[in-house]
Fold this protein.
Amino acid sequence: MTKNKRLDLSYTQMKWETVFRRILVIMSVLLLLLVVGILITLIVQSMPSIKSLGIGFLWGKIWDPVSNIYGAYPFLIGTLLTSFTALLISVPFSYAISIYLGEYNPKGWLSNLLKNSIELIAAVPSIIYGFWGLFVLVPVIRTFEAKIHIAPYGVGIFTSSLVLAVMIIPYAASLGITLIRMVPSPLKEGAYALGATRFEVIRSVIMPYTRSGLFAGVLLSLGRALGETMAVTMLIGNTSTIANSFKEIFFGPGNTMASVIANEFTEADHTVYLSALIELGLVLFFVTVIINLIGKRIITKFTNH
Amino acid sequence: MKVIKSLQLAIVAIAASCITLSASAQDNTLLGAGSTFVYPLFSKIFAEYGKTHDVKVNYQSIGSGGGILQLTNKTVDFGGSDAPLNAEQAKKIGVPVLHIPMASGAVVVTYNVPGVKGTLKLTGKDLADIYLGKITNWNSGEIKATNPGANLPDLPIVVIHRSDGSGTSFIFTDYLTKVNPEWASKIGKASAVNWPAGLGGKGNEGVAGLVKQTPGAIGYNELAYAIQNKMAYADVQNKSGKFITPTLETTTLSSNVELPANAEVSLTNTDNPKGYPITSFTWALIYKEQKYSDRSAARAKTVLTLLWYNIHEGQKNCAPLNYAPLSKSAVKVAEKILKSATYDGKAIL
């Protein structure tokens, strides 16, 4: 009986197999440890504020470092409002870009040029967006606000959302392009063979095939929008008072959790103040986790159908 | 087990790097941290000092609060701060800390009012009412009363304040607290407060940017910043009822009054009839007892000599950089404070 040499794994081969698997495990566990570590640090450091303010921190509307009253409500609203507005504005663009560069024009110099410039948008530092917004966009918005009879501040939640939208387009678009290009040709060819038009192929073959992936891209850009700090700080107007009507809140100045932390952390000179800022970080952490969980649920639901 | 071993290895490596760090802090390299406001002045003075003395100073401009924290943790030789220690910070440090005035600075009220003639004049009370959101238009009676013939337009006032915690905001709110009882009871003074009106800009440049862009805006900036950026700023009424143009001279004059022996004093709303009312010292902070951790007597002496140089020869660097030099009475107080520092109970200077 001849011996099958393929079945005899050498010692080096075996060792490499183990080492490689261990590297993979260690890398993933390290990242998990990092996140858990961040969570523990946030909880421990925000204890003084949790003890003195309790759960009311979440819906308190006053942020007053002088008399040690802290409420996260205005910043929670600001963060959610800017992020979701930015998402609403950016989704049509990122989907259109994905479909055009993924299906209509996947090859050639124009396609490459467009794809590279979209990826470049993600590489621009956020402070550049902040200055661009401050000096170019704000005057335009101010004229617009004067026309629709709102206090013409220029800066505010709407302005920040516009800039955020531009900043997050590449995340969803880049993923979308790759996914749409990966749709197997036999599927598309089959649809064409049955007489489907290009739009019909996109609607009934490509979209169902890539839906969950595209949505994951959108979730990724939402995460980016929730945490963006610098550009938003420069454009949002940084006020913690909440206006009365939705129109005034939407076009008026506001503030986000990330931007308050960035603004006030260096000079937070007493324990509860510092701790309240860290608790804001904790709230932001949970907001991101909850939104991601909801997103995952939606993806699973889509894929099961 | 392997994981534990590698963790131990990492801890040893980190500890080793810490030891080399503290060993590298030799006696001719001093460490300082704190106020960003005083940073340009400090780096100029320390560079000049380094030419004639074998001393290098590494000053990190991380903000006053950070400087105080580093001093508390004893990782620096001196801290820089735009405000004296507050009760909680003093309690945390636990031992006496000396506040040595290094220079003074002014906060000016910048504005952007199209078509207005000459320089605007504002009283402290009106300024606070503007920031409280009670005076909302440039042609309101109160502003007209102090600016006859200034051609004030019918334009809403857009209030701009700092969004980040800052010594500049502390000086400004400290002044408003002194001159307006309603401000004192509702808002108070701090490096960040609950602003009742307006927009926040990040940093001096953020406030200046918003003021320059927005017609009808009013803001506040450091004097040096306003001069360098050619912004319009208002004359402010002082305690004696005179409207004072903020300059380096009027800023210095504001501290030329009877000062308390520890120099931990707010200069705003000065008694000096020629002084500009929104000013403050910026301080260097050191421990009164210089023997702590494993500091040598030589190191303590180097720190004290450097600070002595700062309040004397170093002062000539102030004016070219738009800082107000210390007044005569301030230098006198600063000398006494430096002489009170001790090493192991004995005077150093």
Remarks:
- Chain A touches chain B through 35 residues (CB under 8 Å).
